[in-house]
Amino acid sequence: MQTLIDRLFQGERLTQKEFQALVLCEDQGALELLFQRAKERTEEVFGNHVYIRGLIEISSYCKQDCFYCGLRCSNKKAQRYRLSPEVILATCEQGYEMGFRTFVLQGGEDDFYTDEQMCDLIREICLSCPGSAVTLSFGEKSRRSYEAFRKAGASRYLLRHETATAEHFSRLHPPGQRLDSRMEALSALKELGFQVGAGFMVGSPFQTAEHLAADLYFLQEFRPHMVGIGPFIPHTDTPFGKYAAGDSQQTVKMIAITRGILPGALIPATTALATLSQGSRLQALQAGANVVMPNLSPNEVRVKYNLYNNKLSTGTESAQMLEALRNELAGCGRKMDLSRGDSPLWKA
Fold first, then answer.
1. Per-residue pLDDT tens digits for 102-142
2. Cα–Cα distance list, 53 to 10, 23, 154, 215, 309 (Å)
3. CA separation (Å) from 321 to 15, 196, 244, 313?
4. Which of helix, strand or coil describes residue 294?
5. Distance CA 114, CA 94 (A)
6. Cα(94)–Cα(44) distance, rounded to whole angstroms?
7. Pairing of β 54-59 and β 102-107
8. What band does 316 get if pLDDT is binned at 50, 70 and 90?
């Protein structure tokens, strides 16, 4: 196993079977080596910096019906809201005063906001918050929409592929959603010059080690600039409400392997990971993760953006506790960095 880990961090391409061996590895010595190599590689590229992004959850409406998500359109118990462009802009301006230089606008696939409205908002954020990066995460859109967002000033787009295996994708989504459509969207985003974020869940229903190996192999081939990896956490009001949550340690392992594949990637220690296990976020930051996204959303809507059960929305997930986050990171030898923090894999 050590030889395989050595090859990974020497930049060698691995086969899907070799990735599967890493996924299945339970040898404690090998895992400690993997985590240490991931930590060292992160520090070689980024130093001890952890990049802080201001997350704004703009809408809990979604036209899609993913079986795992609390925002799915069939969930009649979901609390729905939309932030107005004026509120979104004001929230960015407040974050800018606090020092944030990246804003992540995230929402369900909600056609309420037209491309024209969104482009106007992006331009206003760029004018009001000079030097900031605007990141979008609205799911699958047309190439024309992506192109308009890019021209308006957005520089990053997060679109997790969720699973790189078509058969598995079909078990997580209704028939109208297809993996090839997701992959086409990711390719279009990259062609248009976005910093592109892919990613997947760990421990989702029906997932196997082979599926995870396929996810890692996809990352090796596609080479996104950002990778979001979080554990599956069930939501009571979904078809997967009674399934077990993913494993936090397996999630940290996937982060460490991803750091070996993509030394220059931006990899968040996700809210889902922090929700599942209190100490897992810090563990992830010691094993390859280098991004944290405090929630800038207005307090009254945070509980309504309910992707999964018991989502963390207070404490150091709240921007009001920024100083606590700074101290938390310092305690594990990490430095909070509020700058844009672009991926070195990306060329503007």
1. 999 999 999 999 999 999 999 999 999 999 999 999 999 99
2. 30, 29, 14, 25, 23
3. 43, 28, 31, 11
4. coil
5. 25
6. 33
7. parallel
8. very low
Distance CA 113, CA 300 (A): 21
Please say whether the beta carbons of 53 and 104 come within 8 A. Answer: yes
What are residue 158's DSSP bridge partners? 197
Instruction: Please indicate, yes or no, if residue 105 is contained in any of the structural domains.
Output: yes
Length reported for the chain = 348
pTM of the model: 0.95
Q: Cα torsion at 225, 265, 295, 275 (round to 10°)?
A: 120
Check residue 290 and report its DSSP letter: -
Q: In DSSP terms, which residues pair with 55 in a beta bridge?
A: 104, 295
CATH number at residue 329: 3.20.20.70
pLDDT digits (tens, 9 = 90+) for 235-280: 999 999 999 999 999 999 999 999 999 999 999 999 888 888 878 9
For the chain, the domain total comes to: 1
The separation between CA 217 and the C-alpha centre of its own chain, rounded to angstroms, equals 18
Helix, strand, or coil here: 344? coil
Asked if residue 258 belongs to a domain, the reply is yes
Q: Structural domain of residue 111, as residue ranges?
A: 17-337
Q: Which of 308, 260, 325 is nearest to 288 (CA)?
A: 260
| φ, ψ dihedrals at 218, nearest 5° | -60, -45
Closest CA to 197 of 232, 171, 230, 245: 230
Contacts (Cβ under 8 Å, ≥6 apart) of 232: 68, 201, 202, 203, 204, 205, 207, 240, 243, 245, 246
Compute the distance between CA of residue 337 and CA of residue 47 in angstroms, rounded to an integer.
11
DSSP per-residue string spanning 247-264? -HHHHHHHHHHHHHH-TT
Q: Does a structural domain hold residue 1?
A: no
Distance (Å, whole) CA 300 – CA 121: 22
d(CA 250, CA 1): 17
In a domain, 12, yes or no: no
Q: Are 137 and 167 in contact (CB under 8 A)?
A: no
